[in-house]
Design a protein that fits this description.
200 residues; 4-stranded antiparallel beta sheet; 44% helix; 10% strand; elongated
Length: 200
């Protein structure tokens, strides 16, 4: 039985079976021109172009791809750390390395050494490395700021509040990355994820 993935509103959905995807197409929950992919296909194609779904698509629907969706890369497509469609087999094999890449302080190195050939693991390894560097930079910046604040009245309270905000922000980034990796998605961290590609 084939395992399918499909694009809906710019998001990769699945996996679903052929029968499930056929039902979605018949009900209109998935458009006939939605991009779909399964193992063995070289790239994403419109569902309406495949014989597997010919009975599920009204004859009046042309076999065209939605405007703007033709640029969706195949699952193994290369790219900067933006939204990327990962290979399903790669995700299943290396999901744990993607997840641990966000655990402090240096567990991204495990992914770098153990799953160097995995695009999915390296995507999240890069995100984890960027987050780690941001954490160290924040620590240095806070140390300098605290040095100044401790010398003014009420500075201790302000320094504590500032430190809490910074570390909670870093924790939020790590949790977002963990969730994305656990879901098998390659989504950049907010604000920082698309700015640096240190690991490919």
């Amino acid at each position: 039985m084939s395992t399918w993935y499909y694009m809906k509103d710019g998001t990769r959905m699945g996996p679903v079976s052929t029968e499930e995807l056929t039902t979605l197409l018949k009900s209109g929950a998935v458009r006939a021109d939605a991009l779909v992919w399964r193992d063995g296909l070289a790239s994403w194609v419109a569902a309406s172009t495949l014989s597997e779904f010919s009975g599920a698509i009204p004859a009046a629907v042309p076999a065209t791809v939605s405007a703007g969706s033709g640029n969706v890369p195949p699952p193994s497509a290369a790219g900067a750390p933006g939204v990327e469609i990962p290979d399903a087999a790669d995700v299943e094999k290396n999901k744990v390395f993607g997840v641990i890449s966000y655990l402090p302080p240096f567990l991204f190195i495990v992914a770098l050494l153990a799953a160097r050939q995995s695009r999915f693991a390296m995507y999240h390894c890069n995100q984890g490395l960027v987050l780690t560097i941001l954490g160290f930079a924040s620590w240095i910046a806070l140390a300098i700021i605290n040095f100044v604040l401790f010398r003014i009245p009420g500075g201790f309270m302000l320094a504590g509040l500032l430190g809490m905000v910074v570390w909670l922000g870093l924790l939020a980034f790590a949790i977002i990355g963990l969730i994305n990796a656990a879901k098998g998605e390659c989504k950049p961290l907010p604000l920082i994820g698309n700015r640096f590609t240190l690991v490919k």
